[in-house]
Amino acid sequence: MPQNLTSNEQLPFSVEAERAVLGGIMFKNDAWDLVAGLVLEEDFYQYEHKLIFKTIRNLQDSGKPIDFVTVIETLEGNGDLPELDNLGGKNYIQLLGEETPTIANIESYAEIIKQRSNLRRLITTVDQIAQNAREADSSSSDQIIDNAEESILSLRDDVKRSSGPRGIRELLGPVYSTIQESNESGESLVGVSTGFTEIDEITLGFQRSDLIIIAGRPSMGKTALAFNIAENVARETDQTVLIFSMEMSAEQVVRRFISSIANIDLQRLMRGQLQDSDWEGIDKALSILSSKNILLDDTPALSPSELRSRARRIKRETKDLAMIVVDYIGLMQVHGKSDNRVAEISEISRSLKALAKELDVPIVALSQLNRAVESRPNKRPILADLRDSGAIEQDADVIAFLYRHEYYDKNDLENKGKAEINIAKQRNGPTRATSLAFRDSVAKFENLAREERYPPQYYEDSDDD
Predict the structure, then answer these.
(1) Helix (H, G, I), strand (E, B), or coil: what is residue 329?
(2) Where are the domains of the chain?
């Protein structure tokens, strides 16, 4: 139903700004380039103005000139001109073109239109939230609150997205300052340290806004490695680390941390088969963990929007979020796309990458490779093993494959207690493999002395297996 100037007068709008923008474009076609990235058809409040702007856009897309004559002709040809009768029809369009003799302030007018549009959307969103709350039963209050938060944050995202490109000149200063600070500090890392020397040397630390995928077959130690990194980050930075554990309960995760820090066999810890000497290690682990801000969310089968909403909330509340861990991608769900798992995984990986960029934190997400790896003589994962996993390979900034040869050959004493970490993709750095010590009983990875690591030739020879 068309809007007019007498309806919904409580909503914010500026007819004057809308007229000035439309008239400016018809006065000088170059004005289109100034406003096209600032406003959309739906940003205009008055229905007739929406229709005129849509017509102008179609003319622009068709490469045709834009003035009051071509706009009138197009409206007539589409049968839309009668929609403008209450404003004066052809005369109104001609008046718009004549009353705007300059485009000097057209960008400012477009910004006014956008601001008023955002406020109207906010009012509409809040009204819908209130209606949902009135109609909800008490059992669904949590869902209503989550939906409300998502609606507001979605609106904020749209507002931020409309800001458009920034000139390189305004970016040079901040980038130069970062380079200068890195040079003066003498620090070799420019990202968040993982606590593992060789991984840090290859990646320079996990970079903010990066999506890091740790992939491998089951029982390789993906969760252990991710949790070890999370623990190291929390201990080194004294900042917040957020873990989404969709496979294990929060209590199970805590037991893993205690086992790792206290160096107590996880099975003994779970069974309660402890020795007197173990309690000193447990007390140490509890002291360390209680002083660090590690947040655990063990909600199963989170959707990208639910995970995004919770991560945003933590970012706002803590102000010092250093890293997010997602265990694991395969346990996330996308509502309404359960019939196409590849499309579902693609949406999940895109969402995680977008979230890493928005929150300016590294997100470490785990991915389980399918059984095809097992059919090869050489069971080391390669990038092709991710091809059936949606867009993970394209979306990830870093892909690290985890492989333990001793899992397949228990009698291979040379590889016992060692794990290979292959940085197979790094958007802004080199790709190469390294090795870590792995203590399965306490789910703990540790640095190897340089002489104990596999030499580069080892990985080259392995490729030929």
Answers:
(1) helix
(2) 1-163, 190-463
